[in-house]
Each structure stands twice: as C-alpha cells, then as structure tokens.
Design goal:
- The chain is mainly alpha-helical.
- It has three domains: 1-40, no CATH class; 50-123, no CATH class; 144-215, no CATH class.
- The protein is built from nine helices and five strands; from the N terminus they run ββααααααββααβα.
- A three-stranded antiparallel β-sheet has the order 3-4-5. A two-stranded antiparallel sheet has the order 1-2.
- Helix 2 crosses helix 3 and helix 4 packs parallel to helix 6.
- The longest helix has 18 residues, at 50-67.
- The chain binds zinc ion (ZN).
- Zinc ion binds at residues 144, 146-147, 149, 179-180, 182-183.
- It comes from Apilactobacillus apinorum.
- Pfam families: HNHc_6.
C-alpha cells in the first residue's frame, strides 16, 4: 500500500505524518502495520533543471530519427517503460518532475541507447561518468569511456603481474574501463593514468564475477591471485 501525506512534526527520530481521508480498510491496514518496516520518499522541492530537460529531449530526437518513430511516440514509449520499472510507479511531467526523477530518466534513456546500439551526439559523458550503472553499460558494450566509440577494448587500470596471462588470473576486484585505440594510447603511454583520469574526467569500474563471466574474460580454471 502506498500513501501520500504531510509531515506535521519531527522529534529526534520520530516523524508524524498526516494522511487525509483514510478509508476504514486503510486504517485497518495501517493499524496492523504498526511495528513493521516502511519506506518514505521525500519530495525535496528541487525540480528538473533546464539542462536535464534539454538533454532528455535531445535524446528523444536522436532516438526518433534513428528508429523512425515520431518524437512523441518515443517519449511515450520510454516514459511508460520507465514508470513500469519504478519502485514507486507514478506518472510525472518533464515540465515539473523532481530533479531525481529527471536524473533517473536520463540514465534510463542513455541505457536504452547503449543497449540498442543507438548512436547519439548529445554530450552526456558527465552523466555517464557520474553513474556506476552507465559506466557498467559502457564496459559491457565495449564503448570508449572518453569518446563513446564502439568496439573499444577492456583496459586494466591496475596492472596484472608482468608476463602473467590475464585469462589465467581471477580479475574480480580489478579496476578497468573500455577505451578505443586512440584513447588507449593516450591513457597508457602519453598521459599516465592520473593525468588521463583528470583530463577526461573518467573513472574506471571494479570488475565483478558477473561482468567477467558475461565478457568471457577468464578461463574456467582462473586462479585467485
Ligand atoms: Zn575513444
């Protein structure tokens, strides 16, 4: 059950919420729920920024051009799909939704492009680098962390012991990213890792067993180092 109300008081660690017009069955459910866990979502009053809205619509435009749907269709389809997967499904408008919903939606839209191999020119590297979920998508789809080029190579930020065959080493916990040829050379041989990270504002991602399995990076008999 989901309810919306107003916070009327807050003392130390107890919050009182006033919910108007509760029906008998709602009262009954709440009475029985006393003592059990519940989650609160706060509206912090910050709304979608001009920049977020611009990026969301620029991507709608690029997706519609690529797929041949109208922009309105793309917006409707993606919005409905996004709402369906929300923890707390609620209809919203891009004119006044919260900054958090806008952030989540943009992330969802970028993931949609990556997963469906829809190229985009909108500058979104900031959003991508700030999001673990999106950097994960870049690695899994072998997209360059710097320029967004496809068919990039997985590149370890940590060095695996010289002369060791990487496939024989369990790579769980190692930091890596995917880089195209041009940025691989710049990162490894021209700038050095720290300068490279600062210059392009990129962050590597920790490899998990699931990623290694999916990327087929290891021998079945890989050893733990
Ligand atoms: Zn690149």
């Amino acid at each position: 059950m989901q309810e919306t109300g107003f916070i009327t008081s807050f003392n130390d660690d107890e919050i009182t919420i006033r919910i108007k017009d509760l029906s008998d069955s709602q009262r009954y459910m709440i009475t029985n729920a006393v003592g059990s866990q519940s989650t609160m979502y706060f509206d912090d009053g910050r709304h979608i920024t001009v920049d977020q809205r611009k990026k969301i619509f620029a991507l709608f435009n690029e997706i519609s051009e690529y797929l041949g749907y109208t922009q309105v269709n793309v917006e409707e389809i993606l919005k409905i799909r996004f709402i369906e997967q929300m923890d707390n499904p609620v209809w919203f408008s891009f004119s006044n939704c919260s900054i958090e919903i806008a952030k989540q939606f943009l992330e969802y839209e970028i993931t949609f492009c990556i997963q469906n191999e829809i190229p985009f020119k909108t500058k979104l590297m900031d959003e991508i680098q700030q999001s673990y979920a999106l950097r994960y998508q870049l690695v899994m789809h072998r997209i360059c962390f710097v320029c967004g080029k496809t068919h990039a190579q997985l590149d370890h930020v940590d060095t695996i012991g010289m002369g060791r065959n990487r496939r024989h080493v369990n790579q769980v916990g190692y930091y890596a990213w995917t880089l195209c040829d041009k940025h691989h050379i710049s990162g490894k041989h021209t700038d050095g890792i720290t300068t490279f990270m600062q210059k392009y504002q990129v962050k590597p991602i920790k490899l998990t067993q699931e990623m290694i399995d999916k990327l087929n990076l290891a021998d079945k008999g890989a050893i733990n180092q």
